[in-house]
Amino acid sequence: MKRKLTKNYVLTAFVLFISVSAFAQNPDQSVINLWLNKGSKFNAPKNHNPLLPGYYADPTIIEDNGTFYIYATSDMPNWNDINKMVVWSSKDFVNWKAEYLNWPTKELCKSTTGTASGVWAPSVIKAKNGKFYMYVTIGQEIWVGIADKPTGPWKNARADNGPLVRHKEYFYVETIDAECFVDDDGQAYLYWGSSDSGRDIEGRCLGAKLNPDMVSFNGMPQDVTPPHYFEAPYMFKKNGMYYFSYSWGKTWDETYQIRYSTGPTPFGPWKEGMIRPILSTDDYDNKIKSTGHHTILKFKDKYYIVYHRFNTLDSYPISQKLRQVAADELLFNSDGSIKRVVTTHKGVPALQDVASRTNIAFESKVTSSHDLDSVITQAKYAVDENNGTLWIGGKYAEEWLQLDLGSVKSFKEIQVFPEFPIKAYQYKVELSDDQKTWKLADDKWENTKIGSPMVTDKDMKARFIRITLRNNQDNPRPGIWEVKVY
Fold it and tell me: What is the Cα–Cα distance from 303 to 306, expressed in whole angstroms?
């Protein structure tokens, strides 16, 4: 009898242990994965994070007719210098093209109540009427634009051509980071708000119903601040539950992170998730830092979180604490709670199959006139298909980057991804079979166009490709994320 009792006790204890362990492990496994997942190094070839070749922050993403569009703040050392809005587009989520929009700009969006601040933090949605609306911060005021297509042309959607929300107009709440959410019934809501990160990280968030015109409020904005909120609200709905995610911490240090709360209505009341934060600095290789201000993409029944983080350069005079956009998968537990995001350098693979081309410049032999830093801005980083590494030339009037394809090859396109796509680069492209005789393939010595990539498109044949950039006070420094040859 004693033996039988012992056996039953052991069996019961074992079953109980398994049950409790399974229950406990479910929400915590994502945290375990964070410690176990080492992934690829930040400078490994063909990494997909950062997602975009350039310094960008505060992303918003939409997918329309098979194309992904990311709108983002064009990060610069002086935020007041950010004077226009970019959209990056891609068919596969790997290869991206940048265009700068006709609206909004600082010149077109001026008011007597705004500040000198730049063009920040867009939110773009497609409304019930098929039009695209952008809610964007200019001069620390919220403006709203309208377009028939994601790339525009855009224009101010308000008849008075002014802002939707003026600087601290409601309850003295910081008027930045507007985010539009459209519910299942077509009702649209707008959220915004922050605080001064230099003085206080206790931000406030306001929410308001939008009228069908999408440019006016149905009722007074109200305080909808969730727990531990600083800025950058984002709303989505899953299985009837409203998920309100946002940034907490200080924008410019490693405390910056993403948290979330859930509620039964678009205005709460809110209950904070058990995983706190769901995404934050992960310094196992001392490279993924200050993660925040995000957007979420649902595509083919999977969720992806698109966010910004510091660039991976180590030297402040080079990096200037500029930010880059990254993406990782967002996973849920069976009870609907969000798992801890495992941040990676590998990133998200292609989400759609498209006709692929072979980049014959990938990991080719490359030399340069000078490297600004012999370790972190080497010439080889311009041919590694990794948007976290780049070549930056020295400080001479002209700096060049030279590719050796190994043998004479025919190709039709050279793509150059400049360090700052918001600036116009002056450069020329030359070709040679023997490194002695050079032929001019493209003359952009007086170029005024901006965007990325800069493309030379013609029938070409050569072994060596040399890209020479002008470098003086009126030009951006000679920096290239990638050179691709097809």
Answer: 10
| pLDDT tens string 112-139 | 999 999 999 999 999 999 999 999 999 9
Residue 336 included in any domain: no
pTM: 0.93
pLDDT at 197: 62
435 and 325 within one domain: no
CATH code at 442?
A: 2.60.120.260
Of 229, 143, 149, which Cα lies nearest the Cα of 190? Answer: 143
Q: Residue 131, Cβ neighbours under 10 Å: how many?
A: 14
The pLDDT of 198-221, averaged and rounded, is: 92
* Residues sharing a CB contact under 8 Å with residue 198, sequence separation 6 or more, in sequence order: none
Residue 247 shares a structural domain with residue 373: no
Residue-averaged pLDDT of the chain: 93
Q: How far is CA 114 from CA 80, 134, 168, 350, 480, in A?
A: 12, 18, 10, 41, 35
Per-residue DSSP letters for 100-136?
EEEEEETTTS--TT--S--EEEEEEEE-TTS-EEEEE
Work out the number of other CB atoms within 10 angstroms of the CB of residue 354.
13
For the chain, the domain total comes to: 2
Scan for tokens 């780049």, then name that residue: 390
Q: Which residue has the higher pLDDT, 314 or 103?
A: 103
Using one digit for the tens of pLDDT, what is the confidence trace for 413-426? Answer: 999 999 999 999 99
CA angle centred on 474, ends 473 and 480, rounded to 5°? 90
Residue 133 near residue 154, CB atoms below 8 Å: no
Alpha-carbon span 31 to 37, nearest angstrom: 10
Q: What's the token pair of residue 475?
A: 């030009």
Q: Is residue 392 part of a domain?
A: yes
- Boundary (domain end) residue, out of 307, 330, 353: 330
pLDDT of 3 reads 42
Q: What is the C-alpha separation between 204 and 244, in angstroms, rounded? A: 14
Phi-psi region of 363 (alpha: psi -120 to 50; beta: other; left: phi over 0): left
Tell me the three state secondary structure of residue 37: coil
Please report the pLDDT score of residue 294 as a whole number.
98
With pLDDT > 70 as the criterion, what percentage of the chain qualifies? 94
- Looking at 143-248, list the stretches that DSSP marks H as alpha helix, in order from N- to C-terminal side: none
Q: Which residues contact 290 (CB under 8 A, 6 or more apart)?
A: 251, 252, 253, 254, 256, 281, 309, 310, 323
pLDDT in tens, 233-256: 999 999 999 999 999 999 989 999
Q: Which residue range(s) make up the domain with 444?
A: 365-485
